[in-house]
UniProtKB/TrEMBL annotation:
Domain CAAX prenyl protease 2/Lysostaphin resistance protein A-like per the UniProt entry, residue ranges: 100-192
Gene Ontology biological process terms, A to Z: proteolysis
One Gene Ontology term of the molecular function aspect: peptidase activity
Signal peptide: none
Name of protein: Membrane protease YdiL (CAAX protease family)
InterPro entries (alphabetical): Rce1/LyrA-like_dom (IPR003675)
Transmembrane segments: 40-61, 73-93, 99-116, 128-145, 151-170, 201-218
Domain of life: Bacteria
Pfam family, one: Rce1-like
Keywords associated with the record: Hydrolase, Membrane, Protease, Transmembrane, Transmembrane helix
């Protein structure tokens, strides 16, 4: 295996990510914050802060990109942010009689803050490992970061979702190198804060199918160009 993994950078990243998460969900610190949307963002800011600090302290070149392999910022924004926000807000409206657009974009930004850490930093730092090891380690660290260690069926299912997410979202990042793309995929489950029902699951399935088909189509259509752009972003 060529090169080596910067373990100290990963440790620093994770300590900061967990410290921010602990302060947000295990202390009374956010009780002074009245804005619910700001509270949501502060609960997820740790991975982004940890990544930025680790990049700076260890002088790691940051290749974080919102647009990734796409020529325009607007394409991934429209496809992975505006579309799911409008789609899920419509489903929300059918159940609750209102369009929570601000909540939708808050959830997307929350997903972006996490993905700067989990995919933009950690996945890239672990890319020298065999894929299954990298996915498993990211899943364990991501699950543990939530600081919910209750031994119950719900948590076991949640770990399964985290593991599948580490694989699936990781594949999207490998294909697109776009933080907007992985933030959109990451946010699918978080859109529906009151639980998943038949309509919500259908909406998620539709969005996932559309994204997968687009990624496959774009890859085939652009082939060499997309691969070359992705290589420069790695």
């Amino acid at each position: 295996m060529k090169g080596k993994i910067n373990i100290r950078a990963i440790v620093l990243f994770y300590v900061i990510a967990v410290a921010f998460r602990f302060a947000a969900v295990k202390t009374a610190l956010l009780e002074q914050v009245n804005d619910e949307y700001l509270k949501i963002l502060l609960r997820g800011i740790g991975p982004a802060v940890g990544a930025v600090v680790s990049f700076a302290v260890f002088q790691i070149p940051s290749r974080l990109s919102l647009k990734g392999i796409y020529n325009s910022f607007m394409l991934p924004f429209a496809l992975y942010w505006a579309l799911p926000a409008a789609f899920t807000a419509s489903v929300y409206y059918l159940h609750n009689g209102r369009f929570p657009i601000v909540l939708m974009f808050t959830v997307l930004v929350y997903g972006l803050l996490e993905e700067i850490g989990w995919r933009g930093f950690l996945q890239q730092q672990l890319k020298l490992l065999p894929k299954i090891y990298s996915i498993t380690l990211i899943a364990i660290l991501w699950f543990s970061w939530h600081l919910n260690f209750d031994l119950n069926t719900s948590n076991l299912i949640f770990f399964g979702i985290i593991f599948l997410g580490s694989w699936g979202i990781g594949k999207v990042y490998d294909k697109t190198a776009s933080l907007l793309a992985v933030a959109g995929v990451h946010s699918l489950n978080n859109f529906f804060r009151n639980g998943l029902h038949e309509a919500e699951l259908f909406a998620i399935a539709i969005l996932l199918a559309m994204w997968i088909m687009f990624i496959v189509w774009y890859d085939k259509k652009n082939g060499f160009t997309a691969t070359a752009k992705h290589s420069r972003l790695k």
